[in-house]
Amino acid sequence: MSQSHTIPRLERRGAVWQLMVDDQPFWARAGELNNSSASSRAFMSEVWPKLVRARLNTVLAVISWDMFEPEEGRYDFSNIDELIEDARANHIKLVPLWFGTWKNGASHYVPYWVKADQQRFALTRTLMGNIDTISPLNEAAKAADAKAFAALMGHIREVDEKERTVIMVQVENEVGVLGDARDRSEAAERVFNAKAPRELTDYLTGNHARLLPETLEAWQGAGGRTDGTWRETFGRFADEAFSAWHYARFVDAVAAAGKAEYPLPMFVNAWLPNYRNPLFPGEYPSGGPNAHMQDIWRAGAPNIDFLSPDIYSTNFGEILSKYNRAGNPLFIPEARPELEGAANAALAASMGAFGYSPFGIESRIADYDNGPITQVYKLIEEIEPELFKHQAEGTIAGAIVEQGHLEERFVLGGYEIVIGLVQDRNTPAYLAEKGYAIVMSTGPDSFTIAGLGVQVTFAPPVPSGDVIGIGTAEEGRFDDGAWTPGRRLNGDEIVLHRNFGKRSLEGQTGTGLRFLKAEPEIQRVRLYSFKR
Ligand code: DGJ
């Protein structure tokens, strides 16, 4: 049977965007390499086997402008060719990260001929002087970067359109100004003091009903003007908005040139502000695709298919939900590894993401064969058909629980579902450090739950006098989408509390599901109810 290799694309399927590879939804069990690893094939020869052992199906790897175009107009395809060949040989998909004009704000990855010519490729000027960040207003850099990126994408098409090893591309990396909120060079000052561009204010006016609350706060909060200077239009957000717009326009031009050669899905990633202790723009890269700049990015960069967060902080779900708005496809290119990462990956899947990618995958995993990331990737692979279906139907939810956050509740499939950190029934000590659950509502009164270290109880969504009990429960596994039951679970395996009377006041029978094994497991349950 010949396999179809249509171009990878994002497709809206019900409630979510899924990444389609070979016309099938694809969940990117990804990892991002450390910055310098992919520059050496010899170095990578030790890395590929680890990625395979960890069950990755996708790797995010740097392609730097510096190595790609060592002299203006002369391209060196060896790095991308080797990566594609080796990824293919290991049955892993490749997501090149185009470290072009910017990487984490700075312009460290531009070729020497760009670094050395600051007349042509003007730097950003902060209040303290020039920094080695090319100005996002610089047209020469935009044109040169776009030309190089187009050459890269054209080459990828040539060598990969039959196989489709490359499935999407990140354009630049964590852009934004560090050390100030915007470029203050003379050229930039002139633009900043002129009117905010019509294209932007038209977008804001035309999409008013869909704007995010942060955009409304910045724009309407300053008076909602459509004919003012940047300061008049965006008030105290003006400097950051100015940067966001110019980065977005620059990155869009690069992406457009690349897509004209080969239109793979393209995305940008954000170095996030610390949402708990907010910093000033410039303490994090100012003008990057942050949650409160998303509408400006959408207006300025229509060739970018999605904005993605690099989430290293512990409030993973809270941050991800900021990117799960306004129809933004969900993917996390950089995040934590190990147990915390595994819990994040499961939560991301339950929130509709099509992939997750711990950073530094080749050096930050203690056990590539059966560590937490490998385990969660095996789990996700096993439940994939169910996962895609329930993501599309919107009949899925998830939670992470741990010391300090022992319980989470949500309503799904007509029940209140309580996810707790798994406990000893008698003492009641906690039996896991952290737990995660993916809950899928599979039919009336029925759920499939995949998880680790949790206990799951069920109650009516609002107190009604109904008490919810476990009708039947079983563990099992999916083999190619078909359910093979294991033990029928009852008795000690489902009794969580014996104070039945008190529990019934909460609509519960004291029973629930327990995920006690050292590895993630899957259980199915059918509930019944009676009147208290
Ligand atoms: C975020 C950057 O995008 C990555 O390239 C890398 O430098 C990590 N930070 C390091 O934690």
What does this structure look like?
This protein is an alpha/beta fold and 532 residues long. 31% of the residues lie in helices and 28% in strands. The strands form 5 sheets. The protein has an 8-stranded parallel barrel, surrounded by 6 helices. A 6-stranded antiparallel beta sheet has the order 14-17-18-23-20-21, with helices on one face. Strands 15-16-19-22 form a 4-stranded antiparallel beta sheet, with no helix packed on it. Helix 10 packs across helix 11 (294-300). The radius of gyration is 25 Å and the shape is globular.
What is this entry, summarized?
The chain has 532 residues and is an alpha/beta fold. It contains 15 helices and 23 strands. The mean pLDDT is 97.
Radius of gyration: 25 Å
Shape: globular
Total number of helical segments?
15
Within the largest sheet, what's the order of strands?
4-5-6-9-10-11-12-13
Largest sheet: 8 strands, parallel, barrel
Termini distance?
58 Å
Q: What's the structural blueprint in terms of helices and strands?
A:
Elements: E1 9-13, E2 16-21, E3 24-26, E4 28-32, H1 41-53, E5 58-64, H2 65-68, H3 78-89, E6 93-103, H4 112-115, E7 123-126, E8 129-134, H5 139-160, E9 169-173, H6 186-193, H7 198-206, H8 213-219, H9 230-234, H10 238-261, E10 266-271, H11 294-300, E11 306-311, H12 316-323, E12 332-335, H13 338-350, E13 355-358, H14 372-393, E14 396-402, E15 407-412, E16 415-421, E17 434-443, E18 446-452, E19 454-459, E20 466-479, E21 482-488, H15 500-505, E22 513-514, E23 521-531
Parallel strand pairs: 4-5, 4-13, 5-6, 6-9, 9-10, 10-11, 11-12, 12-13
Antiparallel strand pairs: 1-2, 2-3, 7-8, 14-17, 15-16, 16-19, 17-18, 18-23, 19-22, 20-21, 20-23
